[in-house]
Design brief:
By secondary structure, this protein is an all-alpha fold. Helix content is 68%, strand content 2%. 35% of the residues are buried.
């Protein structure tokens, strides 16, 4: 800097330099803290990917994984899965997994890490939403709370019900068809979530000004790929994008190119899926019944368990978060509400009672599954259906009452999607816990967004909650590692015994049962048909007897 002038001018120059130096130092400290937090997040992601890859490596092939590993499935792929089903990408994924240890290890880890990333984007409000676009004050999660939320996401993804765990993380064929569409749908949801919050000023409407052809192709392919995994999700995606188009047209007075292109991709994918001959007299294993009575029984006897009752940890999390939101709302509004305060408090008390009562019942049901309200199973299931409905309505009302007006529509729509996306399963048979992974992921995202909203702008110390969730993750992660490692050791022992029996041309091979059978799907053939697939997959001669003990 050029020196000169009077003493007063030189003094002023020095003061300005000090001020500039202070601001630079402060900015540097902030940037260094941000870099430190980003490094922590990177470590969490690397650790998560490494552990999920290790678990996938240890997981033994189960049930129809054996059949997918045979040559006739390659022939089926070459014929474009004609007269089988329309799960084209799911089928190709499991073909890869059953033919390569590397694919078996990396593909599940890739999808789980991507799911974690999409949920983090949605929860932390760092997707496509910005304060400038909203045109109002909008508080983002700070870095410390951001890492805390990341740990909670991992915890809820790991703390799913045992029945769902076995039929998703414990079975490659189910994982390939039900986890990827959840990830791909969240990619789209994160891109359109702000339609409920503010005007999409950067989006292109049908005037076509600023139309991006590459982006259009990407959106079309995203929609198309989402449709080639699970039938119920394919139907739901078409209905959801129709809803988005209607909502944006009515509320915003615009029809956006991205919505229209996604709809074209979604409807194209649905047509390609359901025109497969497997759904028209082919070999599809699912049957469809549109009888009102059959759909009611399906809802009452099967869907409610998988959709609500079995989600013990998730329901407790919902209950805790909702009560905290109700308390915060009461604290902020008590000074404003006078004569109507008792009415509001009564509503809040009823909501808290219903969500906590249901959460406690779910815990009781998990401990004593044979206990019933009524001895008649059908009537008992009807009572549980009513309680589940009351829980659902209570959560929905709580969201509407406690979340600010700019975001409660978005949160409510997400929670509705997490439940209504199971509607197509009412007409399908058979169904299993695996069909509800999509619903579980969206319910997790709902409660996570509520936690994020609860933490916004609050001077809450998260040290002890972070310590608690870290300890829970350590215990849960240790359990996963122990169970999957034990099953992996058993699988390797089986392969060694099979090799020895084949080399010695033995008449019988005796194989051990899985060390932790409740952490993987069916690992022993159920009948002669599956025994044939098992023998062919592991190279066991047809005449050799296989015994498990």
């Amino acid at each position: 800097m050029i020196r000169g002038g009077s003493l007063e001018e030189q003094f002023l120059i020095k003061e300005v330099e000090k001020s500039m130096s202070y601001e630079k130092t402060e900015d540097t400290v902030v940037k260094l803290k941000s870099v430190g937090k980003n490094r922590i997040r990177l470590v969490i992601y690397l650790l998560f990917f490494t552990i999920t890859a290790y678990l996938a490596y240890q997981l033994p092939y189960c049930h129809d994984d054996w059949h997918w590993g045979l040559s006739d499935r390659v022939v089926l792929m070459k014929n474009l899965f004609q007269n089988y089903n329309g799960r084209y990408l799911g089928n190709i994924t499991i073909l890869l997994i059953t033919r390569s240890i590397l694919a078996k290890t990396l593909i599940p880890a890739f999808w789980m890490t991507w799911l974690l990333r999409e949920m983090e984007i949605s929860v932390s409000n760092r997707g496509r939403i910005s304060e400038k676009r909203l045109g109002r004050s909008y508080t983002f999660i700070n870095d410390k709370k951001h890492c805390f939320l990341l740990l909670i996401i991992i915890f809820l993804l790991a703390a799913l019900p045992q029945t769902l765990l076995v039929q998703s993380y414990g079975w490659f064929a189910a994982f390939a068809n039900f986890v990827p569409p959840a990830v791909l749908f969240l990619c789209w949801f994160n891109q359109t979530d702000d339609i409920y919050i503010g005007v999409r000023s950067d989006e292109v409407d049908l005037t076509g000004v600023g139309f991006n052809f590459k982006k259009a192709i990407a959106i079309f392919m995203l929609a198309l790929c989402t449709q080639f995994f699970a039938e119920n999700i394919t139907i739901f995606v078409v209905l959801y994008v129709l809803w988005i188009i209607v909502y944006s047209t009515v509320r915003k007075g615009k029809l956006y190119f991205s919505h229209l292109i996604y709809f074209i991709g979604a409807i194209t994918g649905a047509i390609l899926m359901f025109t497969n001959g497997g759904y028209h007299g082919g070999v599809s294993f699912k049957s469809v019944s549109l009888s009102i009575a059959d759909m009611y029984y399906q809802l009452r006897d099967k869907i409610m368990d998988h959709l609500f009752i079995n989600n013990v940890v998730l329901n407790i999390t919902f209950a805790v978060v909702i009560v905290c939101l109700l308390i915060r709302k009461e604290k902020y509004s008590c000074s404003k509400i006078q004569g109507d305060g008792r009415k509001h408090s009564l509503w809040d008390a009823l909501i808290a009672l219903s969500v906590w009562g249901y959460a406690c019942y779910c815990v009781w049901h998990s401990i004593f599954p044979d206990w019933k309200f009524i001895s008649d199973e059908g009537k008992n299931n009807f009572v549980e259906l009513l309680f589940s409905g009351l829980f659902f309505i209570s959560v929905l009302i709580a969201i509407w009452r406690t979340v600010d007006s700019s975001r409660r529509t978005s949160f409510c729509i997400l929670y509705l999607c997490s439940i209504l996306s199971a509607a197509p399963l009412m007409a399908a048979n058979p169904i299993g816990a695996r069909c509800f992974y999509f619903n579980y992921a969206l319910q997790c995202l709902t409660v996570l967004k509520l936690i994020g909203f609860l933490l916004e702008g609050e001077k809450i110390s998260i040290w002890y909650p972070t310590l608690l969730i870290s300890a829970a993750l350590a215990v849960l992660g240790g359990t996963y590692l122990f169970a999957f490692t034990a099953n992996g050791a058993t699988e390797r022992a089986r392969r060694l015994l099979i090799e020895e029996a084949v080399e010695s041309k033995a008449e019988e091979v005796i194989l051990p049962y899985m060390s932790c059978p409740s952490w993987c799907y069916v690992s022993e053939p159920m009948n002669e048909e599956w025994l044939k697939y098992y023998k062919d997959f592991y190279g066991i001669p047809e005449e050799m007897t296989v015994t498990f003990q």
